[in-house]
Amino acid sequence: MTVSNSLGTVTSANVQLPPAWRRPIFLLQPQSQSVLCGDPATFQATGKGPAPYPLSYQWQFGGTNLPGATSRVLSLASTTGDSAGNYTVVVSNVNGSVTSQVAILTVIGQQPLITSPLTARGKQEIF
């Protein structure tokens, strides 16, 4: 950029933003939710970063990457007690990454687990 006035002319150098300023940011963070056992659950996040750097998403459960969970929406078709816990998403571009806030999934009314076979006690069959 060149600026001139009656005292002279000054030309500035091009300014490059540091990579940290070009990292993604979150426009929408995933939200905690409660669902009934067996019902679906959906988490959403939206990142934004400067062009022309494409964004990538990676969902995590308990700090571990979920295989194949690489879009801005994470859908769980049918929840169980094992689905309950902490979910986050990491949004990345070539300049860095940012991790979302923790979204807690609470699963209500977990179905009982049968740990031993059922037996008939004191019941006689009539033939």
Radius of gyration: 26 Å
Strand tally: 12
Overall form: rod-shaped
- Please work out how many helical segments DSSP would assign: 1
Order of helices and strands: EEHEEEEEEEEEE
Q: Key features?
A:
127 residues; mainly beta; Immunoglobulin-like; six-stranded mixed β-sheet; two-stranded antiparallel sheet
Descriptive overview:
The protein has 127 residues and is mainly beta. The protein has a domain at 22-108: Sandwich (Immunoglobulin-like), CATH 2.60.40.10. 3% of the residues lie in helices and 43% in strands. The protein has 1 helix and 12 strands, in the order ββαββββββββββ. It has one helix at 19-22; strands at 2-5, 8-11, 25-28, 33-36, 41-44, 46-48, 56-61, 64-65, 73-76, 85-93, 96-99, 103-108. Strands 4, 7, 8, 10, 11 and 12 form a 6-stranded mixed beta sheet that branches. It starts with a strand and ends in a 19-residue tail after the last strand. 12% of the residues are buried. The model has no long low-confidence stretch (mean pLDDT 87).
Task: Briefly say what this structure is.
It is built from one helix and twelve strands, in the order E-E-H-E-E-E-E-E-E-E-E-E-E. The protein is mainly β.
Lay out the secondary structure:
Elements: E1 2-5, E2 8-11, H1 19-22, E3 25-28, E4 33-36, E5 41-44, E6 46-48, E7 56-61, E8 64-65, E9 73-76, E10 85-93, E11 96-99, E12 103-108
